[in-house]
Each structure stands twice: as structure tokens, then as C-alpha cells.
Amino acid sequence: MTDAELASHEWWEHYKQLVNQDDEMQVRGHDKFDDNFYVEIGDDRFLIQMNSGQVKGIVPDPGMNHAWSFGVEGDREAWEEFVQEVPPAFNHEIIASHYRSAVKNEPGHLQLTGNNKKIFQNFRAFQRALDLMRKAENNGGDL
Fold it and tell me: Per the confidence metrics, is the pTM higher than 0.85?
């Protein structure tokens, strides 16, 4: 685990660097992933501002002047499971977690919200961005 608490300013800065330096993200996101998304961890919401597959900014508690196409919501415990180095079944990737939450009404999983078309147009880059949260949490990268 990283020394920084999940979703702290320091944690998000490390995450931003990981995304922006990730070779795989450059392939998946390159010049096409420009849709902002939010991450809701319990009562805290963070806007991830994307531009050409790069994180340009992270805004805590975004307001009416901020725009996003989609988001991921879940309680803190679900996110803590998701970012584990080896997460438990159904919290290991976003579609499995969303299915458990949205279709089966099971608590403790993440749920996608927003524009479904935008989610799936950007899905591979979006999924990689979420996977890099796991790397950030587990002290990944040479930063």
C-alpha cells in the first residue's frame, strides 16, 4: 500500500503521474480520450479531466461549472477492495462490479453512471485509467 490515503491530494497527484506516464494508456487513450469522468468514493466526488488520454486535472467536489460524461460511484469499502493489489471477485474490474450493483442489486460494488455511449466509446482507455488506480494504491511506478 502507498503511504498516501486513498483519494488524498498526494494520492491523486501520484495517480495523475502514473496515468500520464503509462505506455499502455498512451496506446489506448492517445488522442481520443477527451471525456471527463468522475469518481465518487463514498461522499467524496473527484472530477478527472482528460485531454488526449492524459489527466489534465483532478477537481475535488466539482460543481455546476464542471462537466463530465460519466462516472463511477461506490462506497469507500468497495473502492478499497477495487484498488487492492489482488482484488476480490466482482470488484476486480468495473463491468463485473457494475453488474453486481446495477443488475443484481448487491451492495458493496461500484456502479457506472452517465452517458453509456461515451462510456463504451472510451471503454478501453477508461478501464486502463481505473486499473491505474490500483497501481497508485499499491505504490506502483517509479515516482
Answer: yes
